[in-house]
Structures are given as C-alpha cells and as structure tokens.
C-alpha cells in the first residue's frame, strides 16, 4: 500500500469518527483552529514554492503535486460537510427545545 493511501484512509477514518462523536468542547475548537492555521500555512508555502508540492507528492507516492492537492481538497471538503452536518443537527435540537419551552410558557397554567 502506498503512503498516500494510508494517509487518505486515516483522514477519512478521522472524519467518520468526527461524525459520530460529540464535539461541543473547547478542545475541538482548538484543534479546528490549529488545522485551519496549518491549512493556511500550507497554502502559502505551495504558492511560494510550487515544486515543493510536487516533491511532497512524490514522497508520499502521488505522481503530481496537483493530484496531491486534489486529494487534500477532497478530504478537507468532506471534513467541512461533516462539520456543517453536525452544526445543523445541533441547531435543530436547540430550536426544538426552544420551541417546546415557548409553547409551554405561552400555554400558561392548566385550567381547572
């Protein structure tokens, strides 16, 4: 198995685990911010040193730097989808709870 296949499978497994695990803590936010920062640094490095991306691609077993960039983009996009789905589910739960509370508050006390 080529190194890039192992890396991509590990990334996909991580995204899958993130989909089923709770992430409402500060540690998750810190990790997300670090990954976003790392992505920014990698983007700047790949623009300033495009041959470096090709070198890295060959190092992990991909033929071209553009292919490596595509694989990374797909993994990042899947991570974004997972994050958006989780946030949407959380917001739906909050809205449902608020709707229940509002309905109970507006109903008032039961009539005798």
UniProtKB/TrEMBL annotation:
Tell me which UniProt keywords the record has, alphabetically.
Membrane, Transmembrane, Transmembrane helix
Lineage, highest ranks first: Bacteria, Bacillati, Actinomycetota, Actinomycetes, Kineosporiales
Keyword set includes Transmembrane helix: yes
Pfam families attached to this UniProt entry: DUF2304
Protein's UniProt name: DUF2304 domain-containing protein
Q: List where the protein spans the membrane.
A: 6-22, 34-56, 68-85
Species name: Kineococcus gynurae
